[in-house]
């Protein structure tokens, strides 16, 4: 029983170690986006926070937070 508990604890610790901190976009920032995994966009016509999860050319996952106008906005 103890080896199973040890392996479970190790798996949880490994998952937490790989948790990433989202980056906030700034003008001129170099982005290496090979594949977009998901995207969350603000609502309405106001500028709001958007979030994109993507893989870079090395296959590493990143989360980027940036400002944009909502997708429902029509002028």
TrEMBL record:
<dbReference type="InterPro" id="IPR021245">
    <property type="entry name" value="DUF2790"/>
</dbReference>
<dbReference type="Pfam" id="PF10976">
    <property type="entry name" value="DUF2790"/>
</dbReference>
<protein>
    <submittedName>
        <fullName>DUF2790 domain-containing protein</fullName>
    </submittedName>
</protein>
<feature type="signal peptide">
    <location>
        <begin position="1"/>
        <end position="19"/>
    </location>
</feature>
<keyword id="KW-0732">Signal</keyword>
């Amino acid at each position: 029983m103890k080896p199973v508990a040890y392996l479970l604890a190790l798996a949880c610790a490994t998952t937490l170690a790989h948790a990433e901190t989202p980056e906030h976009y700034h003008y001129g920032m170099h982005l290496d986006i090979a594949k977009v995994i998901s995207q969350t966009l603000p609502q309405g016509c106001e500028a709001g926070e958007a979030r994109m999860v993507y893989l870079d050319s090395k296959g590493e996952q990143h989360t980027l937070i940036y400002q944009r106008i909502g997708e429902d906005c029509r002028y």
